[in-house]
């Protein structure tokens, strides 16, 4: 048993035995896993937020800090994409969302919402897909509940600048143009 413990204990670059990896105090997710995912920080509070997301505070995947969603999204249209690491259609859609976010620039906030409690698997999945979008952890489906969405994935929530919900899209997007056309039609954001 001792040999097994020594064999799996993390080691430094020089082969010396080291202590356990540094982890986030909030969730216990290793800091190096967060860093490896390369996610940008979540939007910060721009103003007092309104709408159904008012009062919903979730953890930022990039750093484990709390994010007041309504306040962070206030003043700008947003696309929230609810997904989970185990969802195959989500994995197909996430790279399209990345491309759309790059195309749209600062005209809209694109935020992923991991709808499962396993944050480590979410970070690994995003890294594997090479998707670097800001995201939050929603282990208790608080966003889905707040906007009245069904219990399926993926779901995209289109939020107006005033915090009201323009549309809950209950399907996977089929490409970047599909996202752009849907967002332009519901939020008036051209990309």
TrEMBL record:
The keyword Plastid does not apply. The keyword Nucleotidyltransferase does not apply. Its main location: other. Keywords: Cytochrome c-type biogenesis, Disulfide bond, Redox-active center, Signal-anchor, Transmembrane. Pfam families: Redoxin. Residues 33-188 form the Thioredoxin domain. InterPro entries: Redoxin, Thioredoxin-like_sf, Thioredoxin_CS, Thioredoxin_domain, Thioredoxin_ResA/DsbE_sf. This is TlpA family protein disulfide reductase. It is found in: Cell envelope.
